Amino acid sequence: MYHCRMTKGASDSKIIVRLDPPYLATVAIAVALLFIGNRVATQGLAILPGDSQEVVRARALEVTQRIQGAGAGDEALDPGSVLFSLQGESVVFDAEISRGPRRGEIVSATQSFRGFVQYANAEVAPGDSILLISFGDEWFFNGFYRAGRLLWLGAIFAFCVLLFGRKKGFNTLLSLSLTCAAVFAVFIPSILTGKNIYLMALLTCAYTTAATLLIVIGFNKKSLAALAGCMSGIAVAGLIALVMDRALFLTGVVDEHSRFLMNLPVDGSINLRAIVFAGIVIGAMGAIMDVAISVSSALWEIKESAVAVKPAALMRSGMAIGRDMFGTMANTLILAYIGTSLSVILILLVYTDSLASLMNMEMIVVEVLQALCGSFGILSAIPITSLFCSAIFSRPGGVQAGPAGWTNALDKGEP
Fold first, then answer.
1. Which of 84, 258, 298, 368 lies in disulfide reach of 253, CB 3.0 to 4.6 Å?
2. Parallel, antiparallel, or unpaired: how do β-strands 13-19 and 90-97 relate?
């Protein structure tokens, strides 16, 4: 991010610090591409009509009434459940609206524990930050407000990243912000406006990979080698996903969310198979990028430490490093997919007698396909990154010249 030079005189020392033009150019180009992508992706995007119910943030004041007794058709409660321990099936409470045009208004709302949900929310207490939803002139409890605590946790994470990484930490947060913006401000709107999902998924991966590596690592041979290896791995994962999409006769209907997507009031129908493809390449991108930059950084350090090293030796070192990384990274990728669908897996295992039938469900097939395509991407990124590193990392030996002709004092052995 910065270039620094120290000059020594008889009586003073001066440090010259200036911003790195390639870094500033990279950030400027990344932001400009994001802005242009958003304009293109949102062209023709219509805001979908929302529900007529009003949702507001409020603060609970006091419980004013408890409604006892089981209504007609209510199911018996398990004595060990949360609802059984509550004094009533519904409570009426006062709340003060804390946001929006109704701010300061005190309303009466109802929190109901009826129905099939036995392990429901805890009963509201004075001071709780909650969400209320209106049905006509009546207000009902819509859940505890959770976003505030998540924001605090995110702020703590950002502080820790800055404290630990300093300039690198700032670049990490910047690249993470650009990644989220690329997904939510470009890729998702492009789906709703009928753009080609396959193309937009690949462009999103290319943009995210380039922005992350060039901002966090810098515009140098190390990041370029990692970028080449990462894009190659993503291409392999995407190619396998396309081939297996036809071989497995996928429909893209993997859960109830897919059915909701089919009924969205947008121009044309959303290609659910393309959504599966996008999930595979975007989900694999992070692990592939991690492997590519790790191999590239390790080989760069080897090249910097050795007076001279042949490209073939550098290639062998990259493959050896990659073999050690592949086992853990493949496990990380597969376990991540298992963890996100653990509840579904438990339900299917309980209610499905046939293992063959279970493994033939498209929901399970897509999860396994995601893990395998990502693993293939990691596997291919290792040799390709090593090959690029051995080809473009060059050091004839001796003292290395730093940026703009400045001398690296460490190479001279100076303190």
1. 258
2. unpaired
In tens, the pLDDT along 187-227 reads 999 998 889 999 999 999 999 999 999 999 888 899 999 99
Q: Which residue from 369, 280, 384, 373 is spatially nearest to 322, judged by alpha carbons?
A: 384
Helix axis angle, 221-247 to 197-216, nearest 10°: 160
Identify the DSSP state of 127: T
CA triple 223-224-225, angle to 5 deg: 90
Q: How many CB atoms lie within 10 A of CB 340?
A: 12
Q: Which amino acid is at 142?
A: N
Q: Among all chains, which residue has been given the structure tokens 């080698």?
A: 225
pLDDT number for residue 72:
38
Contact 163, 169 (CB under 8 A): yes
114 φ/ψ angles, rounded to the nearest 5 degrees: -80, 170
Min mean pLDDT across 268-272, 314-318, 359-363, 401-405 is at 401-405
Q: Tell me which residue has tokens 């390449």.
A: 281
- Give the whole-angstrom CA distance, residue 338 versus residue 344: 10
The whole-angstrom separation of Cα 236 and Cα 101 is: 52
| DSSP 3-state of 58 | strand
Specify the pLDDT at position 81: 43
At 18 the pLDDT is: 46
Structure confidence at residue 294 as a pLDDT band (50, 70, 90): very high
C-alpha distances in angstroms, 410 versus 76, 166, 167, 395?
A: 75, 21, 20, 16
Question: Nearest 5 degrees, angle CA 131-CA 137-CA 143?
Answer: 15
Confidence of residue 332 (pLDDT cuts 50, 70, 90): confident
Opening angle at CA 171, ends 166 and 172, nearest 5: 95
Contacts of 186 (CB under 8 A, 6+ apart): 34, 37, 38, 41, 200, 204
Going through 20-88 in order, the beta strands assigned E by DSSP cover: 55-67
